[in-house]
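Tokens as discussed.
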């Protein structure tokens, strides 16, 4: 499945800045960062459940927010970009 994940973490405290770093690390493990707090993700249903569980463990529900949008099957190929934005290939082979 294809997802768009966004988050907003209150960074007024050192704990908030730590949550922000942890949330970014988590999302980098699942998808591609397309803006500072926006990730395009391709994963399975099980991967989504793991992501949701991990995000819930990181954020402070009283101060932070996470939004996950499920995209249609071709959602990441139908993106229009402007300015310095780039389209990233999500289905290319991964070279380690």
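Sequence:
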């Amino acid at each position: 499945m294809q997802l768009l994940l966004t988050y907003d973490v209150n960074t007024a405290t050192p704990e908030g800045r730590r949550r922000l770093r942890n949330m970014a690390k988590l999302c980098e493990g699942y998808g591609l960062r397309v803006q500072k707090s926006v990730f395009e993700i391709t994963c399975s249903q099980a991967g989504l459940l793991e992501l949701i569980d991990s995000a819930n463990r990181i954020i402070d529900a009283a101060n932070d927010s996470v939004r996950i949008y499920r995209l249609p099957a071709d959602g990441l190929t139908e993106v229009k970009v402007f300015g310095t934005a780039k389209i990233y290939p999500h289905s290319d082979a991964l070279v380690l």
